[in-house]
Amino acid sequence: MSVRIGKQTVKLENAPVITETASIVGVKEGKGPLKDTFDRILTDDTLGEKSWEKSESALQRQTALLALEKARLKQSDINYILAGDLLNQCVGAHYSVRDLDIPFLGLYGACSTMTESMSVGGMMVDGGYADYAMCLTSSHFCSSERQFRNPLEYGGQRTPSAQWTVTGAGCAVLSSKGSGPRITYVTTGKVIDKGVTDISNMGAAMAPAAIDTLIAHFRDTGARPDDYDMIATGDLGIIGSDILEELMLDEGFDIRENHRDCGKMIYEIEEQDVHAGGSGCGCCGSVFCGYIYRELKRHNLKKVLLMATGALMNPMVVEQGESIPAIAHAIVIEN
Amino acid sequence: MSVRIGKQTVKLENAPVITETASIVGVKEGKGPLKDTFDRILTDDTLGEKSWEKSESALQRQTALLALEKARLKQSDINYILAGDLLNQCVGAHYSVRDLDIPFLGLYGACSTMTESMSVGGMMVDGGYADYAMCLTSSHFCSSERQFRNPLEYGGQRTPSAQWTVTGAGCAVLSSKGSGPRITYVTTGKVIDKGVTDISNMGAAMAPAAIDTLIAHFRDTGARPDDYDMIATGDLGIIGSDILEELMLDEGFDIRENHRDCGKMIYEIEEQDVHAGGSGCGCCGSVFCGYIYRELKRHNLKKVLLMATGALMNPMVVEQGESIPAIAHAIVIEN
Q: What is the pLDDT of residues A228-251, one digit of tens each?
């Protein structure tokens, strides 16, 4: 059952339980500050595969299977798997799920995919369309560099505003029953394009979408920033986070106290030389399914607003002179 | 409210109404047998844009706006727009909706996107999460050729099994109220990969997914082929349709009488020199939103199973030696 609240938000009255999560990250992410919160850290980012695309699929598949194992569920228990990634035609997801015997819905929201899948999956469980739904996403530094920028072998220099695509995957299992952190609200974003054209500054391109969705969420629900223990954005990084905090202040919402960004949390920014911070679907995916979910389970966090943001361009259309549209989807998770 | 029926199907008890549709197609499609059923036929497939990607976005945007106009609805009436296309990072959809003031959910199901969006949108309207949802998709021959095969200027020869990507878009507006054809069942497909590696034979790659979903639908609902006036597949073309009909017969289901394929219907196959028939998200999109919807409204069709199929590879992974996974999503539409 649902209640529509305002223009962009629904309240999930049955409030699906996030019954289990799994997170697997790469070598570099396994040396960052959140290293103890991931389920598994790769020792080899190739995963023994012969191409980076195959490595990413293997990473995503391992994460899905680990989530099933941790949740003590069989594939046949799951009604839907909702997945996506950054690769052309979402091949990370398609080749990862083809060995799974689970009905599949493919999503593309760029780096917003984790909360897009939890939004749609949350509604499907809440509405009784599914007893269990799996929400899955990944990114891989090496497949993303080749596809969006340059092959690694080219040795291109990174600008100071560039973000480092997280090698990682996250999978959340939603359930209509049981206890645990629950998804209580879903605020769906609009596509926002403020004219940013710098493909090496995703934070600036995505921040306006984050602002738009966050204001919509506060407007629709009447909540205030301090109603949340944490307002976690997906991968705005240093530049995008600064823009978000400053412009939200102009709008009358001071989120500086409890705003955290997964892209800033996952690395030691300077020591690990990641410039503006982490990015990629797997950034929000692995940090939510690792650190944030653990803190919710331990009751160190009681109410979290999770909002992943995605930049929706591809390199070709930017070369054609287009600016970069972006989107942000927010969900509320409560204990 | 929903009732789960079997492993892959839900019955939509509130049965969302397809309150209006819009379809726009290209010059070639406007010379085919269905030319009188489309809302608008382009006189220039560029739509006055400077790149094929921008042309496709413009096509999709025009179709969405036309659907709103025909339905006498404002953008602010629509709770969600669910859209996708074949382009890398779904830029057809993202650049088409950025000027719309409507919450957006991006989907990727390759050529299955029309029924994927109607499945998810249908559940969201059925469950009360939306009063109105728009389901939108497109494809464009010229952007697809460049991206998946060769730029047009290369003049590559097409194999006999190749299909012709439809230049076209379809938009269906789902509503919780009113009268008209309704979505009553949703059967969600699994990713199926039977090892086909020929990128010029999408029909053969997609047919096994169509078979899998169709059998699941009959198994879950207890329906038989002759319960439907039409079993419409999206774009299996000549080769895929033959495989589907033959292998379904082996499974004990004779669909030969009432199976139609949008990819076969949209062109005069031989005269228009399209080899194995039409394909692309816009094939099922424009044929459903044009011809099939018109026949439902005129009560010439009473009960239709609509099942779009998608091939989920990209050219790079096929070059890496991968086979082609595929998926099919089915919905039942009843008067």
A: 999 999 999 999 999 999 999 999
Cβ neighbours, 10 Å, residue B11:
17
Mean pLDDT computed over A143-165 = 94
* Whole-number pLDDT of residue B1: 61
Copy the structure tokens of residue B213: 């979903």
Which residue out of A12, A82, A191 would a mutagenesis test of the B interface target, given it has the greatest number of B Cβ atoms within 10 Å?
A191
> Residue A65: pLDDT band by 50, 70, 90 thresholds?
very high
Listed residue (A141, A144, A51) closest to A95, CA to CA: A51
CB contact under 8 A, A106 and B105: no
Please answer yes or no on whether B4 and A191 come within 8 Å at the CB atom. no
Two tokens, residue A144: 């993303």
Residue carrying structure tokens 């859209």: B83
Q: Where are the alpha helices (DSSP H) in chain B?
A: 52-71, 91-97, 113-126, 141-148, 202-221, 237-250, 262-265, 281-287, 293-297, 315-319
Q: How far is B290 from chain A (nearest CA, A)?
A: 25
Distances (CA, A) of B149 to B162, B163, B165: 11, 12, 11
Kindly report, residue by residue over B249-308, the tens digit of the pLDDT: 999 999 999 999 999 999 999 999 999 999 999 999 999 999 999 999 999 999 999 999
State the smallest CA–CA distance between residue A114 and chain B in angstroms: 12
**For testing the chain B interface, which of A11, A57, A60, A108 should be mutated: the one with the most B CBs within 10 Å?**
A108
pTM: 0.98
Strand partners for B306: B232, B331
In order of A31, A167, A218, A309, the CA distances from A41 in angstroms are: 9, 10, 37, 25
Q: In angstroms, rounded to a whole number, what is the distance separating the alpha carbons of residues B49 and A317?
A: 13
Residue A39 and residue A70 in contact, taking contact as beta carbons nearer than 8 Å = yes
Question: If residue A22 lies in a helix (H) or strand (E), which one and from where to where?
Answer: strand A17-25
Distances (CA, A) of B95 to A324, B9, B111: 9, 33, 19
Name B186's bridge partners. B10, B331
Residues of chain B with Cβ-Cβ distance to A108 below 8 Å are 84, 89-90, 106-108
Please report residues of B whose CB lies closer than 8 A to that of A54.
317, 320, 322
Chain centroid, CA B238 distance in Å: 17
Mean pLDDT within A319-325: 97
Cβ-based contacts of B103 with chain A (< 8 Å): 7-8, 188-190
Q: How far is B168 from chain A (nearest CA, A)?
A: 19
* pLDDT of B2: 76
pLDDT (mean) for A60-81: 98
Interchain contact, B312 vs A127, CB within 8 Å: no
Q: What is the pLDDT of residue B3?
A: 87
For residue A257, CA distances in Å to A223, A232, B1, B107, B225 come to 16, 12, 41, 35, 61
A–B interface: beta-carbon pairs under 8 A: 176
Give the contacts of A129 (CB within 8 A, at least 6 positions apart): A79, A80, B2, B4, B10, B123, B127
d(CA B164, CA B27): 13
In angstroms, the CA B309 to CA B307 distance is 6
- In chain B, what are the helix, strand and coil shares in percent, each to the nearest 5? 40, 25, 35
Which portions of chain B are predicted below pLDDT 50?
A: none
Could you please report the per-residue DSSP string of A265-320?
HSS-TTTTT-TT-EESHHHHHHHIIIIIHHHHHTTS-SEEEEEEEEE---HHHHHT
State the amino acid at position B88 in one-letter form: N
